[in-house]
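How a chain folds remains the central question behind the approach discussed here. In the encoding step, the backbone of a single protein was reduced to a row of integers, each denoting a local shape. We regard such an encoding as a compact summary of how the chain folds. The sequence in question and its structure tokens are set out directly beneath this paragraph:

___
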Amino acid sequence: MSEQKEYLFYKNLKFIWSKKWILLIIPIVIALIVSAISLLGDREYVGKAFFYTSSLDRDELTDDDLLNNKYITGTEDVEINFSVVSRGKVQIKIVGNNKEDVQSKLTSLGTQYLEDLQEEHKFLYDATDKSLKSYQQNLEIIEPLNEKIIEATEALEGQETSDKYIELLNSAVTNQQLLLEYENGVYRKDVDLKMFEKPELLSEEITKSDNYLVQNMVISFALSFFLTLLGIMLWRYIREARRALND
């Protein structure tokens, strides 16, 4: 074993330690510069509005792509996006450099979308109510008619084989089926009407976009520390190489 054994790792550590202030100061300065840029840089305004769409399932009002095609013209000076964040919940997101522009567009789009939701809700509610009334009217007609058929059938007891009795019996069966259908229809439509919920605006807010100050500071410090360390190692390598060549 050579008495002149080289302890390269120790020498590297010793050299790095001798340059410790460089290793610390450069990353800190760079991190501070990046932080200042993050703080002083322009930040966009983000407007968000959340809507409850109730049980409406019309694709034009509840599908991401169709919503964007319907309400975004492509001529806006702000960034607009519609998204379905969960069942029955739609978000309008607007991003821009001017707060007033973001607020104005968020208000106008939100108003238009809510009006369309309410119009669709009213259409479905009115159609269901009309169907309910139709079932009720048919029920009012069929109930007394059914009672008359039953009375006429009872009056022909003892003549069960007569054509008149069989005809009345068939009519009674048909009317019972219609009566059950109309009663079920009234029940279903009545439940549907009671379950209807109106669409509404849940919340609306405008905030400044995140400047990611902490993240940028940490990343810039770590990256500059690593690059500075590589620079110090390269510095030592070049110095040792020159010394070896001169010797």
Summary: DSSP finds seven helices and four strands in the chain. Residues 99-155 form the longest helix (57 residues). The helical segments are 8-18, 20-40, 59-62, 64-71, 99-155, 163-195, 213-246.
